[in-house]
Known about the structure:
The chain has ten helices and no strands. With 276 residues, it is an all-alpha fold. It has one domain (45-270): MetI-like fold. 28% of the residues are buried.
Amino acid sequence: xxxxxxxxxxxxxxxxxxxxxxxxxxxxxxxxxxxxxxxxxxxxxxxxxxxxxxxxxxxxxxxxxxxxxxxxxxxxxxxxxxxxxxxxxxxxxxxxxxxxxxxxxxxxxxxxxxxxxxxxxxxxxxxxxxxxxxxxxxxxxxxxxxxxxxxxxxxxxxxxxxxxxxxxxxxxxxxxxxxxxxxxxxxxxxxxxxxxxxxxxxxxxxxxxxxxxxxxxxxxxxxxxxxxxxxxxxxxxxxxxxxxxxxxxxxxxxxxxxxxxxxxxxxxxxxxxxxx
Length: 276
């Protein structure tokens, strides 16, 4: 495949269009000023404003990311709590083994097998043609289920291990022993007295997992044919579309920073001693 290159006047025009013919500090402050006004430049590939392209693809990535995060939390918290209150039991060993497996096996490898093996064995493969919500609601939701579950496995494993460890630590505190001695039931001791304090480090890790999930959308949207922001970034890298690469990275960083601010604000609810 021949690679297209720019020479002479074409190269000078491209540098002028991208602003590369000016000093670095001027380029930076001009770019920063455009970002503040919501101008992320024009895609070299699609010839459309980057902000329009991101606005069209962001809902797909958000839907995938929120489903993955929801699956991670709904799976990790109950299993982590069960493993803590049944420490060293068979269920605890199974939960810890599955968590290690979930952290060890790459998600993209599982996704590839999920697409290929059913097609080879049973002639079935997950839907890889994107369906809009307005066309078929069930088909729209179902196409996110498999990628969201696989994307959320690693996050669920990390959150489950931390939930178990922190809950075990809290259950050994003096005030929890006092509650046991007063005859408080197990459900109240775990859910009312212990879980809230144990969740503070877990919430911190969940904020970090958002970045991991957003990064994972690049591979999963490409494998499952979802026209989201991650797949757009993958295509932009292949096309050397630098304005799109900048815009997507800026948006991902903004979401991660906003999520960490939300996590910090949520601390005040979990621990009343924290005041802002």
